Amino acid sequence: MSSSAKSGARMLSLGTALPERVVSNKDLEEMVNTSHDWIVERSGIHERRVGGSTAGLAADAGKIAIERGGIDPSSIDLLILATTSPDRQVPATASTVQELLGLHCGAMDLNAACSGFVYGLIAAHGFIQMGHNRILVIGSETLSRITDWTDRSTCILFADGAGAAVVERTEGRGDLHGWHVDSNGALEEALFCDFDGKIQMNGHAIFKNAVLAMENAAQKSLSMANLTPDDIDLVVPHQANVRIVEASCKRLGIPYEKTSMVIHRTGNTSSASIPLALEDAWAEGRVSKGDNILLVGFGAGMTSAAAVITWDGV
Ligand code: ACO
């Protein structure tokens, strides 16, 4: 369900973290019956990063976002950690991250699979409307821990990483102009992971529904923002598969060249993928004040989320 946005909040700064260990497609050729060419052609992935803990990567990304924002960590009121691969069942990994960063604030995990960062960003704007001043939103994953490295249909896709954003109160309406969140629990069996199990996936079902869910979430948020696809300067999609992004862009009428893509070097990092791709565009100088950015993701559940923001950060 969507409603009109009156946020009064802006995304101030970004930070990311990737584990050091690179696993190339050539490395995977040694592990399962696959090839570099097949993986590139079907997914766009060349290599991915593996290692670390969800809390450790999250804290590294969060620290960079705090430093870049030039803010006092004690001014953060809430930490929202989007993750589908928490380090423990209990407590929330957000509490570990809070301790690692030395924050004194509320902390919670949010699991909306790969849509989690956008869900967290929208929730942060809502918390700020209710009185908070600064919120740290992080997407962090160690999917390698729940990946079956003998299953060629999944191990070529999933990887580890984190991305963070400081969201803060601002004068006026803020940067969020339209948003949409959704879920279709009927598709639960298309991608799931049981306790102590590994990810099970029906790639075809995910592919087909992902394209439709991305289109729907993007259109609803554009409509709320009173913008058309032509008004969008940058699209930051969930990095699951280059072909899913190409098909979604085509349906939306947005040139693929307007997307920020990091999947070739990161693989699918679930809730970390959108902040990783946003930070990459920012670092490459592709983001300027006033730019309209469409963040759009989908994931297990089958969740989807989109947000249209105008960049007003550092
Ligand atoms: N290497 C070589 N061959 C392979 C591999 C592999 N790694 N994996 C499958 N194959 C084979 C299959 O067995 C099949 O062989 P067959 O024709 O003899 O039966 C053939 O390649 C084609 O397989 P398809 O499944 O049709 O390949 P497809 O083009 O659909 O690509 C893929 C598979 C990449 C998984 C694709 O379906 C996809 O990306 N789906 C979406 C997955 C996704 O986005 N998941 C995450 C979403 S939610 C989240 O991010 C947590």
Detailed description of the structure:
- This protein has helices spanning 25-29, 36-43, 54-69, 93-101, 116-129, 152-155, 203-224, 242-252, 263-266, 273-283, and strands spanning 9-17, 22-24, 47-49, 78-82, 106-110, 134-142, 160-169, 176-183, 191-192, 200-201, 234-237, 292-299, 303-310.
- It is of the alpha/beta class and 314 residues long.
- It folds into two domains: 9-169, Peroxisomal Thiolase, Chain A, domain 1 (3-Layer(aba) Sandwich); 176-310, Peroxisomal Thiolase, Chain A, domain 1, CATH 3.40.47.10.
- Strands 1-7-6-4-5 form a five-stranded mixed beta sheet, sandwiched between helices.
- Strand 9 (191-192) and strand 10 form a beta hairpin.
- The longest helix is centred in the C-terminal third of the chain and has 22 residues, at 203-224.
- The protein starts with 8 loop residues before the first strand and ends with a strand.
- The model is unreliable at 1-5 (pLDDT under 50).
- It binds acetyl coenzyme *A.
